[in-house]
Amino acid sequence: MEEEVIEKVKELIEQKDSDMVKELLIDLHPADIAELCNELSPEEARFVYLLLDNELAADVLIEMDEDVRKEFLDLLPPEIIAKRFLDYMDTDDAVELIREMDEDKQEEVLSHIEDIEQAGDIVDLLKYDEDTAGGLMGTEMVVVNENWSMPECLKEMRQQAEEMDEIYYVYVVDDDERLKGVFPLKKMITSPSVSKVRHVMKKDPISVHVNTPIEEVVQTIEKYDLVAIPVVDSIGRLVGRITVDDVMDEVREQAERDYQLASGLSQDVETHDNVARQTTARLPWLLIGMIGGIGNSMILGNFDETFATHPEMALYIPLIGGTGGNVGTQSSAIVVQGLANSSLEVEETFKQVGKESVVALINATLISLLVYIYNFIRFGGAATVTYSVSISLFAVVMFASIFGTLVPMTLEKMKIDPAIATGPFISITNDIIGMMLYMSITVLLS
Amino acid sequence: MEEEVIEKVKELIEQKDSDMVKELLIDLHPADIAELCNELSPEEARFVYLLLDNELAADVLIEMDEDVRKEFLDLLPPEIIAKRFLDYMDTDDAVELIREMDEDKQEEVLSHIEDIEQAGDIVDLLKYDEDTAGGLMGTEMVVVNENWSMPECLKEMRQQAEEMDEIYYVYVVDDDERLKGVFPLKKMITSPSVSKVRHVMKKDPISVHVNTPIEEVVQTIEKYDLVAIPVVDSIGRLVGRITVDDVMDEVREQAERDYQLASGLSQDVETHDNVARQTTARLPWLLIGMIGGIGNSMILGNFDETFATHPEMALYIPLIGGTGGNVGTQSSAIVVQGLANSSLEVEETFKQVGKESVVALINATLISLLVYIYNFIRFGGAATVTYSVSISLFAVVMFASIFGTLVPMTLEKMKIDPAIATGPFISITNDIIGMMLYMSITVLLS
Q1: What are phi and psi of A29, to 5 degrees?
Q2: Residues 370 to 389 of A: which have CB under 8 A from any B CB?
Q3: What fold, for A3-136?
Q4: Which of A100, A151, B213, B247 has a CA positioned 20 to 30 A from the CA of residue B342?
């Protein structure tokens, strides 16, 4: 969205020139209008909103940034939200919207939806856990009976499809509404009209259970290159479908979450967020890092005699700490990513630690050897620092690799997001343990 | 894929029991057969392959892991690759496959494709840059003329669609093949048969140019919730389409790449990769970290008198270095993510640095104050360490925030991937600069 357009709209809103604003909006896609609204104040956005017809207003609302939408909805009475938006939305979008409200408002909004079938579907969908297929699915889909002929099917489909934006698959059920098959919409056009649905459909379609975790839904859609996936309940009845656009949002969100956790940001934060949010997202790990640093100073404090007699020991503190941090981050990142894309299972912990140890052994040997050569030239072979730094480095690399592997694996086993074990957690922990190893080895050797 | 199934297949292959293997495969989805092949040796995979019919073999091949596929294709003569796979593949998949081969093999494989139209399309597609819309698109799509009636259109579509797996949109062109409109396949069924195509279609469809960078294609598909997007050339002619499954792979790959760069892994590496690859992916940053650490020891070496007289100064080396690393990582991660999802533009550098400075000021004040209180209690207000640590911390947090913002912004401006400025790069640099600040401030104050 260009700056000029936004400025133009703001100006027109100030002049209360509804006609001109309407004219500007008429050719825009809902996603573009949403982008525009993200840049406006809630009051300005409200002005734009009241110019849109219901269908379009609903489409725009669901494309808006979550926080802008929240502010905006706070300005509107529940009745308007229900009648102007929820009645015109796909059920999965409506559920997403309702989940963002507090419970009192939820109840009130639901009671104002005029289309009883729509309201019933939404209430049913709200029962599912947000992180499962049931929580992400919608009920808009074309469903036909396996015993119908293709012409019957076509007729029925014309009715069902009237209200839907886009359709990719036709789902086939038996008389008890159990999912039996699927066929792409294209078959409706290319298949001879005499055929029965059951002869056209692909049997045993790929589907997910209402309780399937979202990560698994994402993997299934990605693996089989689907644009939508049917959702069934415990007795195999078709209860909804999940579309690829929702799944793509999930992929993006999860990747951003993992990245943020690995970078020491404790909540979802963007460049456009205000200073208060930016600060609170960063402070937790900075404070933990500070406590870690003070802890480190206490550990090192026990060895100040060592520093007084061997001041050169202090020179390698950054090297030992930094290497531990780097190695640990690498190991834990590989594990977290492997767990996220299912190429690694919790059952493989032992195997992964074994492999990691071999890699660590090679890296540790190489690095400590290089540093040994350097120190040999700088301080000579007899100096404590020469061998104690290299032995410590070796120990730190070995420890950090195994620790960086074990921690996320253990968290996964405990059903805690392993991504929290990356980034500052690993570097702070390895920093402290690295110092303990370094000091202990130095004292032992001198 | 379950271990038992894999073991069973391996056993059957050893016994050369083609019939039983075939029976096991018959109900599997191509993506599942590919997953199975990923677990087999190239020779075993070859045995499985020769049992599949051409269509299925092509589908399986494109779903395989890139490195497994490479090994496997090396076993096959170019003629077989052309006739058994490329002839049966979507053009975008065929291009992906051919790009993985070296140039000599590419030429030879292309010369063996029997379907001349297919070969021509592939050769044309290979001309586009891999990172643009042209490099990702395929030519399989249903195209109709704007002047046709819906029944004409239906007839033509039946022919075109016969060979295609799945169709979501129908693209409309004028007599000069310029893209004029689009309509979802559903309209084919719900629109009255008397209408002309031009009255059914949506005008000015969202499209991308052949030279549009892939990141922008991804953003467009995500923003408008499309399942496919048409690609046009410089004079607006429709030349191809990109489907959402390819885009989703891109989202996943890019997120993994950014994550790996931020974690100090210099190449794409997975838990299942062998030890050599694991080691080479990690060593570069570990060696750079080592050089950084040695550099740090040289800087600190100039101050060993300071450590001899004030051994307590050494205690805070980890705190100063660690805080600089943490702050820098946070700042650069926010910038990299903002640039990746286009919520931040290079032109906003000045604004972003300003905002970052305010956030840094709050964090710096808070952390240095807390550490000051701690040190006041531990060492007293008169000790050099008490104020020099806090002043240094303040300076380090301010510097690291601004540096962590400026570096990725500058890289983006220079068209270099800003993600390389995250992770070890930022922490090593901030570690060194932090030490210089700490030592300079200490010498100035004592």
Answers
A1: -75, 150
A2: 370-371, 374
A3: MgtE N-terminal fold (1.25.60)
A4: A100
